[in-house]
Specification:
five-stranded parallel beta sheet; alpha/beta; about 20% strand; 4 helices
């Protein structure tokens, strides 16, 4: 049913992605689908990497450490942006085409009142591509 699963990954916020990563790995095993982890970075040094090349090395290492045994070698793609927050949706839409993904598994942000006027990344991506988009909500903090 699914051949290629794309997972957007932000190496600076791995804890927030754990559920989505687990779901992607489970779906990959179930369908025997290849996983592609996609990251977006800048050319400016960050807490994760000093250069886009270093970011790519870290993302590739992450992919090999966390991908399930689904019969496919995991892949990683890094896109460079001057403003990742502003460019994220467009970059992810392009990445879906580049990768040939038919399913995108991505973590959501915690819901806020701004969701009424600003659609989520997942909603924008679902409208602009033919790929199915599976949004995985982060765990809410215990009350």
């Amino acid at each position: 049913m699914f051949n290629k699963i794309m997972v957007p990954v932000d190496l600076a916020h791995m804890g927030e992605l754990e559920k989505a990563l687990t779901v992607a790995a489970d779906l990959s095993r179930h369908y025997g689908a290849a996983l592609c982890y996609v990251g977006v970075t800048t050319s400016q040094p960050s807490t994760v990497a000093r250069t886009p090349e270093e970011y790519e090395l870290r993302l590739r290492a992450f992919a090999h450490e966390h991908a399930p045994d689904s019969g496919h070698e995991p892949t990683a793609r890094v896109y460079n942006s001057h403003d990742p927050a502003a460019d994220l949706d467009d970059i992810l839409v392009r990445a879906i085409k580049d990768v040939g993904a038919d399913l995108v598994v991505m973590a959501t942000h915690l819901p806020t009142h701004l969701d009424a006027i600003m659609p989520s990344n997942g909603a924008k991506i679902a409208k602009q591509t033919k790929a199915s988009v599976f949004l995985v909500r982060r765990d809410l903090a215990p009350e």
